[in-house]
Amino acid sequence: MNRKYYIDNIRILLTALVVLHHLAITYAGGPGLWYYVEPNSNPITNLILTLFVATNQSFFMGMFFLISAYFLEKSLRRKSANQVVRDKLKRLGIPLLFYILILSPVIMYLKVRYQFDMELSVAEFFRTQQWLTFGPIWFVAALLLFTLVTVIGGQFIKLPFLRTTAPLPSNRRIILGVLFITLISFIVRIKIPVGETLDPFGFQLAHFTQYIVLFCVGFVASRNNWLDQISPADAKLWMRAVWVFLVLLFPAVFYFGGALTNGVDIFMGGLTWQSFAYSLWEEVVGIGIIIGLFSWYREKRNTQSALQKNLSASAYTVYIFHSLILVALSLAIRNVAISPTTKFVILAPIVLISCFAISNGIRKLPIARNIL
Fold it and tell me: At a CB cut-off of 8 Å and minimum separation 6, what does 337 contact?
């Protein structure tokens, strides 16, 4: 079986976007939860980065779940369920515990010590501060949960998406799928708005409808080779819709929905037309970008240089370690008298290069080589 380099290259892009996403929240007023945030009063920067963060959120984590399920399905063809479970417990479970028990306390100690200028001993820190956090590792926890439920549950219950044979869905069927995700997300957000997390895991259940659906789609796509069948014409059609929603509908809906005067909370959930409109915007943009990226990368980026192979191999390690690197660099320049916008521009390439370079070294360590 020929390796699909375009999927590996997409993983590089998605991982880089995760890093920049959290950097945007740090410096540019982007909505979301993060360890360290500097307020930014520049309205232009806030608007641009809010759109950047919202666009990322619409597709990148859902695409991660789809790609993960795509390769999980192939693993289940080659290995027994027990082997797959053991592999995933090692590859997902060990980094999850490492982050929670090692990286999370270090990050929180840096935050308490340097952001809040609290001189605590290590013992005092563990005794008095909240140090156990999942941060972005929530994705690994959710993926492990999805995987165990699917693999173990599939031994006792016939899960349709594990065995479905079907042609690539037409645009009409994809639109119906988008509307289904929109409706369920809207209903969930009446009680659980965007931004509300399920502690201690950090799960934002407002987004989980898309994650669950795309995880299931990943299995069917792998079994039926859907990703190689997406036509460039259909991808262009979806990307045109994405640009309309980004350039025209995003500012229009937020303006007429009262975001400038009343804030964006009404868009995040509740029984409001604004919440439904945002849910619809999110799914059209997200699914459209996913279709467009799979098609474009397959046509244009289905080879890898030596550098790209290293970047792809390091992507998972970057996801695990980027929080520590980003927070440390942000805190290191916290007292530099330049605007948060300037800090964002300066740190963006530095953080990306640092994350991939450091992670490339970490994954090659003997203790990490068989895990990361």
Answer: none
For residues 35 and 153, give the distance between their C-alpha atoms in angstroms, rounded to a whole number.
36
d(CA 9, CA 150): 26
Predicted model pTM: 0.94
Q: How many CB atoms lie within 10 A of CB 254?
A: 21
Partnered with residue 203 across adjacent β-strands are 198
By residue count, the chain amounts to: 372
Taking only the tens place, the pLDDT of each residue in 150-209 is 999 888 887 777 777 899 999 999 999 999 999 999 999 999 999 899 988 999 999 999
**Domain edges within the chain:** 1-41+304-372
pLDDT in tens, 14-35: 999 999 999 999 987 655 678 9
- The answer for residues whose C-beta is within 8 angstroms of residue 105's C-beta and 6 or more apart is 125, 126, 131, 132
The residue with tokens 């990322």 is 56
Q: Report mean pLDDT in 10-residue bins for the chain, 372 residues.
A: 86 97 84 81 82 93 97 92 94 96 92 84 81 92 96 83 87 97 98 91 95 96 95 96 93 87 89 96 97 96 94 97 96 91 94 97 91 88
